[in-house]
Design brief:
The structure holds two protein chains of two kinds. By secondary structure, chain A is mostly helical. Chain A has one domain. Chain A has helices at about 15-30, 30-40, 40-50, 65-95, 100-105, 110-140, 150-170, 175-195, 205-210, 215-230, 235-255. Chain A is globular and about 65 Å long. Chain A starts with 14 loop residues before the first helix and ends with a helix. Chain B is of the alpha/beta class. Chain B has two domains: about 10-220, P-loop containing nucleotide triphosphate hydrolases (Rossmann fold); about 230-305, YebC, transcriptional regulation domain (Alpha-Beta Plaits, 2-Layer Sandwich). Chain B has eleven helices and 13 strands. In chain B, helix 6 links the parallel strand 6 (about 160-165) and strand 7 (about 190-195). Chain B is elongated, with a radius of gyration of 23 Å. The two termini of chain B are about 25 Å apart. The chains are: A mainly alpha, B alpha/beta. Chain B: InterPro entries: AAA+_ATPase (IPR003593), ABC_transporter-like_ATP-bd (IPR003439), ABC_transporter-like_CS (IPR017871), ABC_transporter_ATP-binding (IPR050763), P-loop_NTPase (IPR027417). Chain B: It holds the Pfam family ABC_tran. Chain B: GO terms for molecular function: ATP binding; ATP hydrolysis activity. Chain B: Keywords: Antibiotic resistance, ATP-binding, Cell membrane, Membrane, Nucleotide-binding, Translocase, Transport.
Chain lengths: ~260, ~300
């Protein structure tokens, strides 16, 4: 072709690997977002763990300490934070800036970018959860989940539900600012359901029955059960999986590329 | 409106009877044109005329209500994947991630194409070599636009669409960007240039389609458009004695007469000029500070779109 500048000499990465690598780089360049994901829940854990009363066994909690109840909650916070705050802001920003539209004019579909964002945020959420568990174990002698596989499964489903919820926020919000506002609006009820203020176990019966039908209420209960050594109940896992499917289907239905 | 003359090569972009409306409002109304290989084809019109919708249909970003588009024989919607290999686009009002560096953007977009251009050569030509490690957010408007041109060219396309390329640039950066566009064409790439700057269209384009309210109102070379417009030649002078309006009215091809203080401004054609000179000679009137100038594309645009009425 007469038009061609000579073709680049080196072989190059596959498009998907290149997108993922670029997004990972950009992810690392947002210290603000990173803070909320891999530092804030951990700091909260350290602060709570430093309060002496949190480390006293409580007969009302079956001999457990408050800190034992809070480690699973903080793990959840990390997931919710990523799903509702970090990811929607990034993706709506990409849409607003025409980055998705620009990609539509190349041989690579912009869905590659969304896939990379899901993968990265999901991975960051799981890493954050692992750090929380490690700090709890090493600093405050909080037991590790006794049913490790059940815990991992519940954690994965929770991450999927959190990211799907974030995807729906992204689909419905026209701008990054709106996404942030919606995300924050859902964040507090989600945190309540996750048991940040009152652990689900300690909620009155009726409230607990309702809360376990919400994604993060179900998540909190499933994670608790696995923590205690039981296989998480299928009803909780089912609620989580159901939410993940419904939310992501709704997001796919209403997502706007521009 | 199929091109008859001035098409340098075989058509590489063909648009026929394109229509698109949004919510009952017709944005593109029966637009047809074709662009020859190696041409710089301008789409010129006021804001909201349907220019961007037209090129976005060509890029496959919009699905036309009716009409036919072919890029190198391919349908932008049905053959979207294949079209992305032959068409590069610089989009209106789009940005990149602020924290992405120029080098990273180029490497990323190179990876999208099976046979990308060497981006090092592209940035060299576009004068971005010393900005490779700068983040997108730190680039000046002109540098950002040059990066977008590089990204549009990185897949070695046959056609590149540049939409409002110089909007928001200072005059200096605008002129630099024009040179880049000429350089792109010099390498044989066909350029589809959307603009609302007359000067830009007049300077760069081989042919221009004037679009107004979704329709092509004229399609010609810049010079052709100017001479199509009535009053393409402007004659102005200060007569030594008053001229009778009835005498002036007899002038051939006269489009308008304007008195500005003691100056007389006539619009017409070359025929008008000759006739004015002989009229003056007959009445022994001297024309002080006589100026004969060609109308600009600006004047032609206003005349052809009827925007001054």
């Amino acid at each position: 072709m007469s038009t061609a500048v000579q073709t680049a000499p080196e072989r190059h990465a596959t498009p998907y690997a290149a997108v993922l690598r670029t997004e990972a780089r950009l992810f690392r360049r947002e210290p603000g977002a990173l803070f909320w994901v891999v530092a804030f829940p951990q700091l909260l854990l350290i602060i709570l763990g430093s309060i002496p009363s949190f480390r006293k066994p409580d007969d009302g909690l079956g001999g457990l300490r408050l800190i034992d109840l809070y480690v699973p909650v903080l793990v959840l916070i990390a997931l919710v934070m990523i799903g509702l705050q970090t990811m929607p802001t990034v993706i709506t920003g990409y849409r607003e800036r025409g980055i998705l539209r620009r990609m539509s004019t190349t041989p690579v579909k912009p869905s590659a970018l969304l896939g990379a964002q899901f993968g990265l945020n999901g991975a960051a959420a799981l890493v954050s959860a692992l750090i929380c568990l490690t700090i709890g174990r090493l600093a405050f002698d909080v037991a590790l989940p006794r049913q490790a596989f059940g815990y991992a499964l519940a954690l994965l489903l929770t991450a999927a539900a959190a990211l799907s919820l974030g995807a729906l926020v992204t689909a419905l919000a026209r701008t990054a600012k709106v996404a942030q506002a919606i995300g924050t609006g859902i964040f507090f009820p989600s945190m309540f359901c996750a048991g940040l203020w009152i652990p689900v176990k300690a909620m009155p019966d009726l409230m607990a029955h309702i809360v376990v039908l919400t994604p993060f209420g179900a998540a909190a209960s499933a994670l608790d059960q696995a923590f205690a050594g039981a296989w998480p109940s299928w009803s909780h896992l089912g609620v989580l999986a159901g939410w993940a499917v419904v939310l992501s289907a709704a997001a796919a239905r209403w997502f706007r590329w521009e | 409106m199929i091109t008859s003359s001035g098409t340098p090569g075989a058509p590489v972009v063909e648009v026929s009877n394109l229509r698109k409306s949004y919510g009952g409002r017709t944005v593109v109304d029966d637009v047809s044109f074709s662009v020859g290989e190696g041409e710089i084809f301008g789409i010129l019109g006021p804001n909201g005329a349907g220019k961007t919708t037209t090129v976005e249909s060509i890029e496959g970003l919009r699905v036309p209500d009716s009409g036919r588009i072919r890029i190198a024989g391919l349908d932008p919607v049905a053959d979207h994947a294949a079209v992305t290999q032959v068409l590069g686009a610089q989009l209106q009002e789009s940005r990149l991630q602020d924290k992405l560096t120029v080098r990273e953007a180029l490497e990323l977009y190179s990876a999208f194409y099976p046979n990308p251009a060497d981006w090092r050569v592209l940035v060299e030509r576009l004068g971005l070599t010393d900005r490779l490690d700068a983040r997108f957010g730190k680039l000046s408007g002109g540098q950002q636009q040059r990066l977008f041109i590089a990204l549009a060219l990185i897949g070695n396309p046959r056609v590149v669409v540049l939409d409002e390329l110089t909007t928001g640039l200072d005059p200096r950066a605008r002129r630099d960007t024009w040179e880049v566009v000429e350089d792109v064409r010099a390498r044989g790439v066909t350029v589809l240039l959307v603009t609302h700057f007359m000067e830009e269209a007049q300077r760069l384009c081989d042919r221009i389609a004037l679009i107004d309210q979704g329709k092509i109102t004229a399609l010609d070379t810049p010079q052709g458009l100017i001479s199509q417009a009535s009053g393409s030649t402007i004659i102005s002078f200060t007569p030594s004695a008053p001229l009778d309006d009835t005498d002036l009215a007899t002038l051939p091809a006269l489009a308008s007469v304007e008195h500005k203080d003691d100056r007389l401004i006539l619009r017409g054609t070359d025929d008008t000029v000759t006739a004015v000179l002989s009229l003056l000679a007959r009445h022994r009137i001297t024309a002080h500070q006589l100026r004969v100038t060609d109308a600009t594309l600006d004047d032609a645009f206003l005349d052809l779109t009827g925007a001054h009425r």
